[in-house]
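User: Fold both of these, please.

Assistant: Here is the first one.
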Amino acid sequence: MKQYLTALAARIDALSLRERAMVFAAAAAAILFVVWSIMLGPLFDRQKTLRMQLDQARNNIGGIDAEITAKVQGFAADPDAANRERLARIKATSTRSATNCARWSKGWWPRNGWHRCLKPFLRRTGSCRWCRCGPCR
């Protein structure tokens, strides 16, 4: 082995400076190729795979965030809002009608004297369904 290395050293010493630079560049390129294919290539491939998985996870998180936002907005909307608004309008109309009726009928008959006005009607129908009071029977 020592003889082989001595012969190799003698051959390299016999080369000119330009040839020595070309041999060094070729040896460095060979070493870089081996290091790249054995060590760095698989590492870069693994990094690429992990980046793709990370991007996919970020996309999934974005989709889940959108779903959560939609559900929160769905819970924020009151499903009975339309019914509540309708009920408020009906109550307001009822209150207005009662107030107008009380103003309109004021002074026509005494309080609780409406039974006398309705007695003929009540005799025909049989009874008062609204109050079931004594004078109506």
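And the second sequence with its predicted structure:
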Amino acid sequence: MYCLNNFILIRKFCTLLMLLTVVSPLIAALKREDCEVCFGILEKFSSSLSEESKQDHKLIEHEFRKYCKTAKNRENRFCYYIGGLEESATGILNELSKPLSSFLPVDKICEKLKKKDAQICDLRYEKTIDFKTVDLKKLKVRDLKNILSGWDESCDGCIEKTDFINRIEELKPLYVRDEL
């Protein structure tokens, strides 16, 4: 009787373990916020491809390299990690092109890429700044420089934080639109 009870307990435990093994990957699926740059680039890039291009992984690689030539900031870094830039040290572009040509969903492609290089999902987009409510004096100089860089402007001769703030205030009417 004691052996039968142990056998039943072991069997229930094994069943539970098998169930957890099957269900856990479904629960732990990669979310957009965990890998936002990968999701963003792949969605934008895949929607820009023609139907003909989507079926040939070599064409996808060629188009992605063209896309990467105009990429900036985090997207440029993503291209570097994947091998979409000429100066890239590694090349796992086929890990993007082959699944994309097989119409694999973006989240699955990003999961595969994360397994190859975890840095891919460490990339985050810079937060957008609401210029109506932000106090520029409370931002770091690095953030002020990023604002100017995002506008493709420079601040020649800027040394102090106030110099950067004054330059941003000077350029603000050109780049910030007041919505009614």
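Residues 2-27 form the longest helix (26 residues).
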